[in-house]
Amino acid sequence: MISLIKLLEQKYKECPPSTQDIELNTKNRDATVKDYNYGPLNVDEPGDYWKKVADKWNTTEEAAKTSLCANCTAFDISPRMLECMPGETSDDDGALGYCWMHHFKCHSARTCYTWAKGGPIDEDEASYDWQKRNLKAAIDPEPIEPPEEKNESLRNWFKKEDWVRIDTQGNITGACGTMKKGKKTTRCLPRKKAQSLTKKQRAATARKKARSKKQFVKNTKAAKVSFKKKKK
Ligand code: SF4
């Protein structure tokens, strides 16, 4: 009888369903267009697409245009993934790869609002590693969940963990997510974590965030939050 470990190993190496199922791929792509502005639709005639992206990221159009699927951390063009994608995978503008964030075949010359630097994934080992970490979504034959549901679970999680805002002086100023519109985002930390730091340490991680124009900025080493469940 096949062992559970062997079965899991097989799952880690299966092609993601949307690389094999055009309908599922289309649903996930359309959801990413709608919810995360995947585009531009026509790479050669982008219209005001890059302006919108630049506004969203609070940067210039020139800078926005350098943040493409091609160099996104979730863009997988490893040899094994290319084998999962039947048919032509490249054209004059670039090539298709698999997106591990939104689970569809995306194009290297496009982007979306959740772009993150660090890609592409071009080695099989790294590709399998992403699959291990995304196993449910990677083998799930259902379309990706809409962002409202994700946001709902995120909201519940924030509530449960009691996340608080930290200003650049290191003060705890209120509940996370209660910042007035238009104000620069401050650093959020779980209350217990924030209280375990000195005021100087809190200020350091808040200032690191305030200095950057990016949406996601890593905490300082002292303020790093572990998402792993603690062993009892
Ligand atoms: S998450 Fe990255 S790879 Fe996926 S569509 Fe967005 S930019 Fe492209």
How would you characterize the overall build of this protein?
The chain folds into two domains: 4-144, no CATH class; 148-211, no CATH class. The protein has helices spanning 4-13, 17-20, 22-36, 49-57, 61-64, 79-84, 124-133, 135-139, 147-161, 191-196, 199-211, and strands at 75-76, 90-91, 94-99, 104-107, 163-166, 172-175, 187-190. The strands form two sheets. Strands 1, 2, 3 and 4 form a four-stranded antiparallel sheet that branches. It has a three-stranded antiparallel sheet with strand order 6-5-7. Helix content is 42%, strand content 11%. The protein is an alpha+beta fold and 232 residues long. The structure holds iron/sulfur cluster (SF4). Residues 32, 38, 69, 72, 74-75, 99, 101-102, 106, 111-112, 114-115 line the site of iron/sulfur cluster. The site of iron/sulfur cluster (SF4) has 14 residues, from loops.
Task: Draw up the topology in text.
Layout: H1 4-13, H2 17-20, H3 22-36, H4 49-57, H5 61-64, E1 75-76, H6 79-84, E2 90-91, E3 94-99, E4 104-107, H7 124-133, H8 135-139, H9 147-161, E5 163-166, E6 172-175, E7 187-190, H10 191-196, H11 199-211
Antiparallel strand pairs: 1-3, 2-3, 3-4, 5-6, 5-7
The structure holds iron/sulfur cluster.
Small molecules bound: iron/sulfur cluster
By DSSP (H or I, 4+ residues per run), the number of helices equals 11
Oligomer: single chain
Average pLDDT, all residues: 80
Going by helix content, strand content and strand pairing, the class is alpha+beta
Enumerate the spans where pLDDT stays under 50 for 5 or more consecutive residues: 151-155, 227-232
The coarse overall form would be globular
Helix content: 40-55%
Compute the gyration radius: what is it? Answer: 20 Å
First and last CA, distance:
33 Å
Strand content: 5-15%
SSE order, one letter for each helix or strand: HHHHHEHEEEHHHEEEHH
How many domains make up the coordinates?
A: 2
